[in-house]
Amino acid sequence: MDFFDWISPNLYWLFDDKPPPRSSSGFMPLRWTKEEDGLIRKYYPNFSMLSLVLPHRSHNARKLRACKLGVSKAAARWSEVEIGWLKAKYPSASWAEIHRNIPNRSKGAILNRTCALRLRRQRKMIDLCGLRLLEDISGKAKELNFTLADLDEEAGIPGYFTNFSSANYALLEGLNKAISAMGGELQIRWYGQ
Model pTM greater than 0.70? Predict the structure, then answer.
């Protein structure tokens, strides 16, 4: 066996004047040969080697042929245990906890599965952030079982609390300091109390 036979019987056209067989459109060989199928079986999933031994086939063509021949790795099926855990814990679990319990799945795969199962995450509740005014708002929101999105909707300020940024915090902190510097205190008085 010489070097050329070892690489591929389909590379003859690189060194001879005969091109590989083409379709009427002039772009693709008509049919997959047994030799090409053998190379797919031998080298899949090493796409760099497949591109060397089958240069006249596109990446997608090689990949689809591997699927058709049954040599491609099938996506792992979701087990009943994984699906049961997602149904029970996904709405409230942190991503770290999800990855600990379902380690062999990417975040994208988990999101796709939860979307198919129609599972939703619990919306974030307002966290205390150290500024008295925000602590009071946060405490009252938790008491009323409001989420950030609920608070935005009730206040008529779309995205203000759900996308609360350090700039918003700095503005409120600045107001609080200015009021304190003038000898005042910023307070909230809730109706009915």
Answer: no
